[in-house]
Write a structure and sequence with these properties.
This protein is of the alpha/beta class and 458 residues long. The chain has helices at residues 3-19, 24-29, 51-63, 74-77, 83-86, 91-94, 96-100, 107-117, 154-164, 190-209, 227-230, 232-242, 296-308, 327-343, 443-448; strands at 65-69, 122-128, 169-174, 216-220, 247-248, 258-259, 273-279, 312-317, 361-366, 369-374, 382-385, 391-396, 402-407, 411-415, 427-433. Helix 8 crosses helix 14 (327-343). Bound molecules: alpha-D-glucopyranose. Alpha-D-glucopyranose binds next to loops. Its EC number is 3.2.1.51.
Length: 458
């Protein structure tokens, strides 16, 4: 698919997908629900992780929740990161942004502070997006933040700020490059492809050599070439030779370590690691006019869905021209971060969870503990149908308040709850069970349930 048609597809599906909370179970169980059309789904059958992948991915899987930042010249332009192509802006005009680019001092420290307040446990920041501008010092092009307006190495500032805070460092790198004369031509001209591959390998080598330990390499824009053209296996070989502990995604067309469903939540199979990346409004790079912010609750429900299906969640913010986060982004992220302080045990280090959600709640699990995340608070009582495992106790997670309940074959009925929702934006109940909580999702259960007949009165 070429850039424009792929982009059109993303734009066409983006709004619907962005607002939908779509779990893997939702996809398989609710056939009538709108189907996600991910730009980067997991392969139909994923290769099972190797021992080395399991070793490198351990911290990453435990981290579960990351903050994605798209920052570049497009942040000054303020109409998303594809503007130079979508609006066919002449390069002579677009390049002037590089001279005006002026991130405020200490911007990376501010990003790390917000990431920490949001509860994120790793970060991924753009070193170069499709526009080709390098946010780092490089010997390979003058189109970089050291030679242009900022006169600063923004990647170095970010890496240092993150490391100082103990925050794992992810680098986003776009293979596709609209500024480089060989970028587009590489698909039709072998000499151009060779030059472009040398340039690409050179930039990646600099990024993975000059900044100490890098934890994640987040490839993107694997166009216009395929795996062979990018020499993707050789690329990863170089990456692992330079950074033996790094994890890489599969967007350079090699399989890499994890899949990256975009604006959708689709679990990979076969134990393959996956990470759903999503925007907090509808834009990756800053769009001054985009006010379609997700509510803190929708954002959190997406995180819960990823946790339930054992995936990671990477939430994106596009800072404004000088690197400041839009105010709504800070507010939403901080609200979710505050929630995680009291409820994080239900999100991090959880196990696969079989129970499915009713319309008002979702579930995660750790060992024999079932976490019921109630997003539409029903008032003084909450029910859970079909649980087949004996419940020993129920309490509110944040306050530890014990709750009264009864259980029969069809229902766990929790009573005596406050009429007003106790926690925002979601209230989590903890059900301690006798064994791993399982739910009967089959029709048989409803068949067996006693019914009253027509004309039968009590
Ligand atoms: C899409 C967009 C790109 C963005 C990426 C993040 O591929 O084209 O601009 O950086 O998603 O996943």
């Amino acid at each position: 698919m070429d850039h424009i048609s792929r982009r059109s597809m993303l734009v066409g599906t983006g709004a619907a997908l962005a607002s939908a909370v779509m779990g893997a179970n939702a996809q398989t169980k609710a056939a009538s629900a709108p189907q996600a059309c991910p730009a980067h789904p997991a392969p139909a059958s994923s290769p099972a992780p190797t021992a080395d992948q399991a070793r490198r991915l351990k911290w990453w899987k435990e981290a579960r929740y990351g903050l994605f930042i798209h920052y570049g010249l497009y942040s000054l332009h303020g109409r998303q990161e594809w503007a130079v192509e979508k609006e066919a802006i002449p390069w002579s005009e677009y390049e002037s942004l590089a001279r005006r680019f002026s991130p405020k001092p200490g911007v990376a420290k501010e990003w790390v502070r917000i990431a920490q307040a949001s509860g994120a446990r790793y970060m991924v920041v753009t070193a170069k997006h499709h526009e080709g501008f390098c946010n780092f010092d490089t010997k390979l092009t003058d189109f970089n933040s050291m030679k242009q307006g900022p006169k600063r190495d923004l990647v170095r500032e970010y890496v240092e700020a993150a490391r100082e805070a103990g925050m794992p460092v992810g680098i986003y790198y776009s293979l596709m490059d609209w500024h480089h004369p060989d970028g587009e031509r590489s698909s039709v001209d072998e000499a151009a492809r060779k030059r472009f591959i040398e340039y690409t390998f050179g930039l990646i080598r600099e990024l993975l050599t000059n900044y100490g330990k890098i934890d994640i390499l987040w490839y993107d824009g694997g166009m216009p070439l395929e795996a062979e053209g990018w020499e993707a296996e050789r690329m990863n070989k170089m990456v692992f030779a330079l950074q033996p502990d790094i994890v890489v995604n599969g967007r350079n067309h090699a399989s890499g370590d994890f899949s990256t469903p975009e604006q959708s939540i689709i679990a990979a199979n076969n134990g393959r690691a996956w990470e759903s990346c999503m925007t907090l409004n509808e834009s990756w790079g800053y769009d001054a006019a985009d006010d379609e912010w997700k509510s803190p609750r929708t954002h959190l429900r997406n995180l819960i869905t990823c946790a339930r299906d054992q995936g990671n969640f990477l939430i994106n913010v596009g800072p404004t021209a000088d690197g400041t986060f839009p105010e709504p982004a800070v507010r939403i992220l901080t609200e979710v971060g505050d929630w995680l302080k009291g409820n994080g045990e239900a999100i991090f280090n959880t196990d696969p969870c079989q129970p499915w959600r009713p319309s008002y709640a979702m579930f995660t699990r750790r060992a024999n503990t079932l976490y019921m995340h109630v997003h539409f608070w029903p008032g003084s009582d909450v029910s859970l149908s079909g649980l087949q495992t004996k419940v020993k106790s129920v309490r509110l997670l944040k306050s530890s308040t014990s709750l009264a309940f009864t259980q029969d074959a069809w229902r766990v009925h929790i009573t005596g709850l406050p009429a007003e929702v106790p926690d925002h934006p979601i209230t989590t109940l903890v059900l301690e069970c006798e064994s791993e909580p399982r739910m009967n999702l089959d029709h048989e259960l409803r068949l067996a349930k006693p019914r009253l007949g027509v004309n039968v009165t009590l």
